[in-house]
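Can't attach files on this board, so I'm pasting raw text. These are the components:
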Amino acid sequence: MVIRVDFNSDEALYIQLCNQIILGIASSNIQEGETLPSVRELADNIGINMHTVNKAYSILKQEGFLKLDRRKGAVISLDLDKVNAKLELYDVLSVALARAMCKNITREEMHRAVDEVCDDILYGNTLQE
Amino acid sequence: MVIRVDFNSDEALYIQLCNQIILGIASSNIQEGETLPSVRELADNIGINMHTVNKAYSILKQEGFLKLDRRKGAVISLDLDKVNAKLELYDVLSVALARAMCKNITREEMHRAVDEVCDDILYGNTLQE
DNA sequence: ATACTTGTTATATTCTTAGTATAACAGCAA
DNA sequence: TTGCTGTTATACTAAGAATATAACAAGTAT
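---
Top answer:
Structure tokens for the assembled complex are below.
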């Protein structure tokens, strides 16, 4: 799985790493049971520090996306806590949709956006390869 | 319009201010043409520094939610840049929905979440008063 | 047993951001 | 003039992000 990073972004590197890996899982780019590169290897590939990668992996572990094994490394392992996941989704949506409403984006457009983003993640319509 | 702040949150104070005001606009709690408290007044009310409020107002101005007038203060004034607003919405959704997909949240549940959040903003179902 | 790799922990340093604290300025209203 | 707006400037503290070394424990491979 290819992982890139934008050094000019105002988003923290470890957050970018988390997001990319989550997108990779959602798009089946990497699947349950498969392993990510080791912290040192990924850090070297991207050109960042080991601890930055380790921080991302630790967060993903705590959020139930993978498990860390000292022998195998970082193994994708999904813990399906839907209750908590829904609460987080509602939190994110409340600010995102409030913004959208202020900009006169209709509810139909929001629903279309959900479908398009899902399709994009699953089948890769627009940009991402 | 009532504005509160959570000092224990890991979210920056000025971000919380921005989000609250945007939610206030979306929920018609405050409307186009109406004015927000002055930077000094709001800062005193909440118990934070003037510059933190000023930072929030400046961002909201730059994002097209209000205009700053030296005589009237901060006046709600919506600049409807739908193109940009949609791009931002897609950005936020892509990471939020990828997370949701990993947690086996169905597309139907996502659509229901959109409707519930919108209704909650507009009519105040659950918690917010 | 040795060498190597894994995640993990610890410490220290640099840089950026967030937030505060004063202070002053320009424009406008009572 | 007095008092209120937003605006700008400067300086400081605190916290987080990222890096740099270093070492440790546990497993694998030779």
